[in-house]
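Rotation project, supervised by the postdoc (A.L.). Task for the rotation student: set up a whole-complex structure prediction and record inputs and outputs verbatim in this book. Inputs entered:
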Amino acid sequence: MEQTAVLEHFDVEKIRQDFPILTRKVNGKPLVYLDNGATTQKPKQVIDAIVEYYTQLNSNVHRGVHYLSQLATDAFEVTRRKLRPFINAAHEHEIILTKGTTEGINLVASCYGKAYVKAGDEIIISAMEHHSNIVPWQMLCEERGATLRVVPINDAGELDMEAYRAALNDRTKMVAVTYVSNALGTVNPVGEIIRQAHAAGAPVLLDAAQAVQHLPIDVQALDVDFLVFSGHKMYGPTGIGVLYGKEKWLDAMPPYQGGGEMIKDVAFEKTTYNELPFKYEAGTPNIEAGICLAHAVDYLETAGLNRIAQHERELLAYAGGRLLEIPELRIIGTAQEKSSVVSFLLGGIHPYDVGVILDKLGIAVRTGHHCTQPLMERYGIPGTVRASIAMYNTKEDIDALVAGVQKAAEMLA
Amino acid sequence: MTINEIQEELIEDFAFFDDWMAKYEYLIQLGKELPLIDDQYKTDEYLIKGCQSKVWLHADHQRGKVLFTADSDAIITKGLVALMIKVLSGHSPAEIADSELYFIDQIGLKEHLSPTRANGLLSMVKQMKLYALALQAKGR
Ligand SMILES: Cc1ncc(COP(=O)(O)O)c(C=O)c1O
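Outputs recorded:
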């Protein structure tokens, strides 16, 4: 009962007013934005902060003694301070600011790999990973003579936990899996995945690119070793992301890139590295995005992740039901636990064709393989049409999508 | 008809469509009517890598003219491919190599020719011209 009472406070119309782009037209039609898995739109709080940054603060961070540099540095560090409780990290210095999810994964593959992965070792990923969580591990395995093991999925798009357990062994050096699948929407049983990996002595990296904006995350409760996500998919700016790592790993691993900021002392004989988090933040960061990400965190917290999750869950159920009214429409990814994504195919029609017609109707979806080619291969399909939901989406958006798909079905039949 | 005469004719045809839907319905129709490509050419060797939809293209040289056949797994792409074939097929290698394809822009389908568009159409046009150039070189 309490849940419904809480939900009543989630005023989607009021939220929509914070997103200026939602009032624009595309191809003469009101924009229906359902490509949130690719990137979300930004609330005016974030947009205003970007303007404010360049009109009031612009300066390099962590270096100057001058006033503006201090202001910019403080603002930049506010983001780290807000991100800590946002994911409930134990320490602020466990929050490394990166360019995004991809860089976070590459950083861990490279630095953890250098320290811990040898010939004969094994890395476990899943069949539903984004290319960003496949290729860095493949590169590491190639470099080190290690083996990449892939946990299969069932037809619904759920991980085969039996196969996962069987794959874990004392050669397993890392388990890297996605929290929420960007192509199917599956929410993986990450608590269980982490417990089992730890029992086998392996750390876990969670790709939370499609999770942080949809559900509350507590890295300590999960006991996850590394967690990565992108600012641009959580209503924040592009070019900034987060790598959370347990202090013990971040201390033990070598730095990623060399340069300014990451050093304590540089001499030609020997350079000593800066402390956490700066050890992993070489060079001038994306200051604007770093500062403005704090406003996206604020925005998510004000809206409330539990309320967002419930609103999106209702929309997803509504979308699934309505889409299945369309003859010959088939949903790809029917896991018990799903979040925010509905991927589908319309008979034998190519997803690209459906995407073109929807675009003409002002409806933005993604078509193609969603950077998960091995997953599409697993289903034997060239790709899907993917509608992905954000907190500002409404039943009207879903109705527009359904009408659009019906129109596409008529035209393309 | 010359390549440019065909382009002019297409521009006139498309002027009759007063909304996008009619235009796309026509494209889809063209896609459906495109003569089938011989199955032996629907292999990787003849595949033009577009990001999302596949396009297969084959060129034949007969009595000084290049004859194109093609297919795609997406029907709208196939319609666009059919347009290209209408314009370029049946001309000499030199005419094809030197042609300037302005009709796409004028019939309001420019977005499909953008290099960032993931349908492979631009690569297809390049490939058609490359075939023509290769045949031209051989003919000398
Ligand atoms: C699950 C998942 N992982 C990784 C990425 C890569 O994120 P980014 O391009 O922001 O680095 C994405 C984005 O599409 C994603 O959905």
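Student's summary: The pocket of pyridoxal-5'-phosphate is lined by residues A 37, 100-102, 130, 132-133, 178, 182, 207, 209-210, 230, 371 (CB under 6 Å).
Supervisor addendum: Residues 12-43+305-412 of chain A form a domain with the Aspartate Aminotransferase, domain 1 fold (CATH 3.90.1150.10).
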